[in-house]
Write a structure and sequence with these properties.
homodimer; mainly alpha; three-stranded mixed sheet; two-stranded antiparallel sheet; binds zinc ion; carboxypeptidase activity (chains A, B); Metal-dependent carboxypeptidase (chains A, B)
Chain lengths: 504, 504
């Protein structure tokens, strides 16, 4: 009965965290303005309960008894894996003292408010003291978790198990070397950018992006699409996986690609097997978050794959532009599939990460990662961030940052105490190309893409990525699915091929 | 620190129960079809956690220490009241063994499925075994809770503290005696019923019912209105109180009055004082339900007051019919305010409780209460229900029940293990008239109603009902607000006056 006890405690934690996900979704999609304060307390209470159970004696005892019960089974047994994976993650969670967790949560509230004001006023100095305290606390958390080589490793690994700053630096170096020349080349590409900011009624944008999401394989019977300020995906087990979008009448790609991005995340969660529901393999014990994806980077690989590898491909628009034109006959009467594809691939260095194109996006991530790593060792000081930011953006993208609002103050992450999550965006980009290349080795996938039938690709992802939930590490998942660990080659090849097509 | 510990444990329970309310709301309003199974488990886990905390040693110790800490304070101190009220409710909750709670929850699932099938097939015999088991279990629960006089008392009191079958019988007798002659009289009233089932576009019904809800005083900044199959109200503290409606194009009053009914419930919850948020006075520990209203009957008094005492009054339509006609100019071009008011007050005995008018509604409740009381003592047997039902409906409403689907199988309550809640509908009707009569003694209220300004009435309800949350018993609340305990006089007077107006 001890493995059963273990399973049932884990299921409880997962249920609580799914409820937290719903409280979060609702607060961003449905909640009336008055509800904010009470909602914050409700979420804090549930997270606290989840933590209490996860780090409590009951689960610890169940883990030990399950180990004893399973002492005779074969080493690869999934139950053993479940127990050891939970023990490991709970170990990390337990090493962060409750007092530190509480202090971080309190600081987050005031720090986010300070950041919001500072950004509006373009006043970094007003935010700096909060940011210093946040970074001190993150350093404390890194020490509490522990690391071999670099304090940043401890934090990065909470989002991307197994990743280190040393490996990231290697990957970033390869990307810089390959992307800088591509970026120089693509500037000459011929683009009618103005076709994207005509007036596209929002309800028809929503309809078209839903139609394509269904074509990709997102299941609306186990999901729904709503409007929010910042698009996101969230799940309450595989059977209820919701996505949101944001549509602006005069910026067509904003709405479309965000929905396909979130649908990519959503298909991952919808593809978690039923038997993993409420299990360790659908629970992130370190971040106390109900999720079926193996890591933040792996998750991002799925969203980027559908958004960029498919949604921004030439073949996709050759096949689907006719439907878009049917949706917007007046707006697109003078536009060809080729024009449209070129326009949604326009590359131009800019200040804002979330508006960056494929060729410049990763530079924004490198910059942030380097700053985070430097802050964690103390080699970089908070006070110097504006100048360091300016310096590096100039080197990477050749731009002069006119204000901190367009620079170091643009992202919410640091004010929220998130250090170590930025690299997962680039990791996701890299992985997306690796998975995509491996999938295309199957004839059915390739023929499907050629014909506009996305089911073979989705099925390949189901079979090689989704179905394993969190039961494989990101590295193992990549190795098994693609034959190699994280490697920039496929991603660089995809971007080089894109530039080649664009400059034809 | 012990009263503080008590408060914080209670707040935790309230937070969990608010999360349960959101899980419930979402499952009825937003959840995609796939989500059902997982949602049921999430709700069960959270209710289990709330029960564990409520009946756990930690809260018990905090209660005892709080008693010690408060031993010197004045007897009426609100903190003492909070502690003793919690202790009392938790006492009731603790007397129901966890095994019985679990068995009841399991039975509910299969019983509801059986009821649903039996109703569709008009096959009471197929449902009877489940109903027998449900009633056995309710008898067990009644014994576990304990009672002085009648087993039904134990169950009724979980919904309406202090109420007994003996008192109910007295009230029912008074109502029967007064209403039967009124019902005979009103049949002669002159009504153009067909004006209500013209084609009324649903979006305009929603807009008009929202407009009037706002006029009544329901605050949409702390609430929202959505569509569901069965309208309801639910709250996540006073700052987020949601209502739902159901609109059918060819049945105008269905949508309007349901929304005003739910808005009445909603205003009660929005009127709970901020300092009661997350406290004993906003938590039903017996039913493990986050709610600020004093009892089910008290809650129903607020919904019925706005729905019937206001929404079905002649003066209301004299004042507001012009806006309705502006909303539906074509449909209502040949209809007067008087026609409309008469139509929405048409009284006619029918088989279905939820479609019953004001004059016949309580007979449906009496019938159910008598059956429930008889089942609890064993004087009535499940097998005899169809015939007993037929017999009593004939006596009360003069109708011959053509099928059990229109008779004993019509309500979901018994299959869900709810025994003792039906009386609260009639208690609510009675109370609504008592509160209304007391409020109208204030000149400002009366002048407001005359002028279509509902703020004075709402303010009176805020001051005399809502602001006390669950800190007064229903009886105390009535005594303080109206000068008398539960009494049928005002309700009978309201109905008699309505009949008089209708037969003018
Ligand atoms: Zn993403
Ligand atoms: Zn009601």
């Amino acid at each position: 009965m001890s493995y059963a006890a273990f399973k049932s405690e884990v299921a409880k934690v997962n249920d609580i965290l799914c409820a937290v996900n719903l409280l979060t979704w609702d607060s961003r999609v449905m909640m009336p303005p008055g509800g904010v304060d009470a909602r914050g307390k409700q979420i804090a209470t549930l997270i606290g309960l989840a933590r209490d159970i996860a780090t409590g004696d009951g689960l610890q005892r169940a883990i030990e008894e399950a180990r004893a019960e399973l002492s005779g089974v074969a080493p690869g047994d999934i139950r053993l894996l479940a127990v050891e994976q939970a023990a490991d993650a709970i170990g990390t969670l337990s090493r962060i003292p409750a007092s530190l967790v509480g202090a971080a949560a309190e600081l987050k509230t005031v720090s986010q408010a300070a950041w919001s004001k500072a950004r509006a006023a373009n006043d970094f100095a007003a935010f700096a003291p909060m940011l210093e305290r946040t970074m001190d606390m993150q350093r404390e958390i890194a020490s509490a978790i522990g690391y071999d080589d670099h304090p940043y490793d401890a934090l990065v690994a909470t989002y991307e198990p197994g990743m280190t700053w040393n490996r990231l630096r290697g990957l970033y170096g390869e990307l810089r070397e390959a992307l800088l020349p591509l970026l120089a080349e693509v500037k000459e590409a011929n683009v009618r950018a103005e076709i994207l900011d005509r007036a596209y009624p929002v309800d028809r944008q929503r309809a078209f992006s839903s139609l394509i999401s269904s074509r990709f394989g997102y299941d609306f019977n186990r999901g729904r699409l709503d409007d929010t300020v910042h698009p996101f995906e969230i799940s309450f087990t595989r059977s209820d996986v919701r996505i949101t979008g944001r549509f602006r009448e005069t910026w067509l790609p904003g709405g479309l690609f965000a929905v396909w991005h979130e649908a990519g995340h959503g298909m991952y969660e919808q593809g978690i097997p039923e038997e993993f529901s409420r299990s360790v393999f659908a629970t992130d014990f370190v971040n106390l978050y109900a999720v079926g994806g193996a890591s933040f980077g792996t998750h991002e690989s799925q969203s980027r794959l559908w958004e960029n590898r498919i949604g921004r491909s030439r073949r996709f628009w050759e096949l689907n532009f006719a439907d878009l034109r049917k949706t917007f006959p007046d707006q697109l009467s003078d536009v060809s599939a080729e024009d449209f594809w070129r326009a949604v691939n326009a590359a131009r260095p800019g200040f804002i990460r979330v508006e960056a194109d494929e060729l410049t996006y990763d530079f924004h991530i490198m910059l942030r990662s380097e700053i985070e790593a430097g802050l964690m060792t103390g080699e970089i000081r908070v006070a110097d961030l504006p100048s360091i930011w300016r310096e590096r953006i100039k080197v990477y993208l050749g731009l002069d940052v006119p204000s901190d609002t367009l620079g170091v103050l643009q992202d919410v992450h640091w004010s929220a105490g998130m250090v170590g999550s930025f690299p997962t965006y680039t990791i996701g980009n890299i992985m997306s190309s690796q998975f995509f290349a491996a999938a295309r080795k199957e004839t059915a996938v390739e023929l499907g893409l050629e014909a506009g039938d996305y089911l073979p690709l989705k099925t390949w992802l189901n079979d090689n990525v989704h179905q394993f939930g969190r039961s494989k590490s990101p590295s193992q998942l990549l190795m098994d699915a693609t034959g190699s660990d994280l490697s920039t080659a496929a991603y660089i090849a995809d971007l080089a091929h894109k530039v080649e097509e664009l400059t034809e």
